[in-house]
């Protein structure tokens, strides 16, 4: 099921270090917001409630934290110990600067969310918004999240919907369209390093039943699953997808799972 350990982690580290400068402005914008918004369509937390209103006293981790605004929102909701792990030193440089600027205390780890240097059962809540959720191999990072959580703890994540991968042209041209370019059942590793438009890194996704099977095998109980809908229509391409497409079909998926 999995590739040789680490290949995608190294490729993605280079990709994100090369591109970290492009994520500074969006990081600054989200740090300045009191109320969380999520994903490429900026849907608010009321509609996609990745974060509960109250995290008072909980130990939390953000897996693939980027500029770490998700952790800032968790700290502002009362989380006690807030840890963000990211594979890119460039992203963490922005994260460190913004945390200092906003006076929020976070622990940042430069590392791989598939092998987090924290003890078993050390967190109550784990979040990933387009971090480990899409850049890590689910067969590695989901069991790792389970290991980190205490009994009763939750993992919530948002990322690309498998349908958006299946309808992505094989040569990586954008936008995604309405043709089924690749099979559904074998969806797993997606290498965009040679994409003709916007070459990227190596991403991962599973078909919906594959995620369900993985959660079951790992021991997670699924509490909720949503397919956020882009509220607008239009032809402006955002991360390879147009609003019109994402208003008709699901471009994103969100999962809430609990360690019993
Ligand atoms: C789109 S950002 C998501 C974070 C945040 N929500 C944001 O939008 O800034 C993706 C992040 O995942 C990180 N990432 C990729 N592979 C990773 C890995 N194996 N372990 C930890 N972080 C990883 C990248 O370095 C990048 O900062």
UniProtKB/TrEMBL annotation:
Superkingdom assignment: Bacteria
Q: Which UniProt keywords apply?
A: Methyltransferase, Transferase
SUPFAM superfamilies (UniProt xref): S-adenosyl-L-methionine-dependent methyltransferases
Gene3D superfamilies recorded: Vaccinia Virus protein VP39 (3.40.50.150)
Q: Name one GO molecular function term.
A: S-adenosylmethionine-dependent methyltransferase activity
A GO term (biological process) for this protein? methylation
Q: Which Pfam families match?
A: Methyltransf_11
Provide the Methyltransferase type domain boundaries.
Answer: 62-157
This chain's protein is named SAM-dependent methyltransferase
Query: What is the originating organism of this protein?
Result: Euzebya pacifica
